[in-house]
Design brief:
2 copies of one chain form a homodimer. Chain A is α/β, with parallel strands linked by helices. Chain A has 9 helices and 9 strands. Bound molecules: nicotinamide-adenine-dinucleotide (2 copies).
Amino acid sequence: SISKATIDRLPLYFRALRNAQEEGLDIISSDELGRRLSITPEQIRKDLTSFGQFGKKGVGYYVNELKKNVSNILGLDNHWNMAIVGVGHLGAALANYQNLGMLGFQLVALFDRKPEVIGTTVNHVQVEDMERVSEIVHERNIKIGVITVPAAFAQDVADRLISAGVKGIWNFAPAKMCVPDDVCIVNEDIFTGLSTLSYHMVHM
Amino acid sequence: SISKATIDRLPLYFRALRNAQEEGLDIISSDELGRRLSITPEQIRKDLTSFGQFGKKGVGYYVNELKKNVSNILGLDNHWNMAIVGVGHLGAALANYQNLGMLGFQLVALFDRKPEVIGTTVNHVQVEDMERVSEIVHERNIKIGVITVPAAFAQDVADRLISAGVKGIWNFAPAKMCVPDDVCIVNEDIFTGLSTLSYHMVHM
Ligand SMILES: NC(=O)c1ccc[n+]([C@@H]2O[C@H](COP(=O)([O-])OP(=O)(O)OC[C@H]3O[C@@H](n4cnc5c(N)ncnc54)[C@H](O)[C@@H]3O)[C@@H](O)[C@H]2O)c1
Ligand SMILES: NC(=O)c1ccc[n+]([C@@H]2O[C@H](COP(=O)([O-])OP(=O)(O)OC[C@H]3O[C@@H](n4cnc5c(N)ncnc54)[C@H](O)[C@@H]3O)[C@@H](O)[C@H]2O)c1
C-alpha cells in the first residue's frame, strides 16, 4: 500500500513525465527526475518501487511507460464528467482552462443562479439554472462537481450535487465542508502556493 | 535544516492551526493535528521538532504559539506588496479573493494591456497599463508578481516584472519559465488537485 506522501507526489510525477515526454526524452534517470521534483533520487526510487515501478539499473525509467502507469494509478485514464457550480471569475477561469480537458476530465455542465449568467456559453458549454442540477447530473452522468460559489453557499451546493449522484467534490470555497464517507473531497486552497513562495523568499 | 517535504507541509500546518484557532482551541495534540493533516502523529512530531517546536509531553501544542511560529517561518509576518498581471477571469478571481489580504500579502497593483480592462477597478485597485509596470513596481515597492496571462506571454511578463525589481513570481500560466537565481518562482498547477481527487475516486 502506498503512503499518503507518495500519493500526494504522484500528480507531480505525472506532470514531470509529461514535460519529459514533450521534450522528447525516452529515458529519465532517478537523478534527473529528482532534480525536476526537488527530491532525492533515493526518494524517487522508493516512491516508484512502492507502486511496482522498477527502473532499468544504471539507466533509469522509460518515460512513456512510467507516465502511462502513473496516469493509470491516478485514474486519469478514466473518463470523468465534470460540472462547475458558480460561473463567476474563478468558475469561468476553470471552465476555460484548456489543459483539464486533456486529462480525462470533461466539462459537461455549468450551473449558476444569476439570471444574467444563466444561458450564457463558456467554452462551448451553456450555463444552466441551479434548479436543474439533479436532472442534469443524472442525464449527463456527472461524477465530479467543482464548487466555485461564495463560502456561504458551498455546503448547500455540495449537498445538492451529492444527492444528485456526484461522487467527487473539488471545492474552492473557503468553507469547512461535510460530505458522506462514500464521497471524496479535495479542498483547494490557493494560499498554500503563495505561502510556499513567501517561505522561499524569506530564506533565500 | 528542514526537509523539503516538511517545508511543503508548513502551509498546511498554518491552515490547520488557523482553523483550530477559529474553533477556540488552546491546545492541540499531535494525534488531532495528524488527523486534520491526514499524516501520522509521529510525522507531526518529527516535522515540528525539526524547526524547534517541542510540544508539552502528554498534552500537545499551544495553538496560538505554534501558529505564530509557523507563520514566522513561512514569512507571513512580512509585508509583501503584490501585483497581478493579466486581469482576466483568473486574475480577477485572485484579486477578489479576500483571504490573501489577511496573510501579509497586499494587492497594490493590477496590470493588463486590453484597453477595455485598463482603468477598471477590482477590489479597490485600479488596473494600470502594462507599459507602466517598471515605474509602478518601483513606486509601490512590489516584491511579488502574480502571472495570470495566457501561456505565450508569461515569460515576457516575468522578465519585465523581474527587471523592475520583483523577487518572487507566482505563475499560473502553463508555460515553462526561466528566472535568475535570486528570484523565487512557484508554478501553480490546478491540475494536481483534480488528479488527487481522481486517485481517491478510483481507489475508494
Ligand atoms: N480556494 C482558492 O484558492 C480560491 C481563490 C480565489 C477564489 N476562491 C473562492 O472561489 C469562490 C468564487 O470566487 P469568485 O471570485 O469567482 O466569485 P464570484 O462572485 O465572481 O462568482 C461566484 C458565482 O457563484 C454564483 N453563485 C452564488 N451562489 C450560488 C448558488 N447557490 N448556486 C449556484 N451559483 C451560485 C454567483 O452567481 C456567481 O456567478 C469564492 O468562494 C472565493 O472565495 C478561492
Ligand atoms: N495554473 C492553473 O491551474 C490555471 C487554471 C486556470 C487558468 N490558468 C491559466 O491562467 C491564465 C489566465 O487564464 P484566464 O482564463 O484568466 O484568461 P483570460 O484570457 O480571461 O485573461 C488573460 C488576461 O491577460 C491579459 N494579457 C494578455 N497578455 C498580456 C500581457 N502581455 N500583459 C498584460 N496583460 C496581458 C489579457 O488582456 C486578459 O485580460 C492562462 O494562462 C490559463 O491557462 C491556469
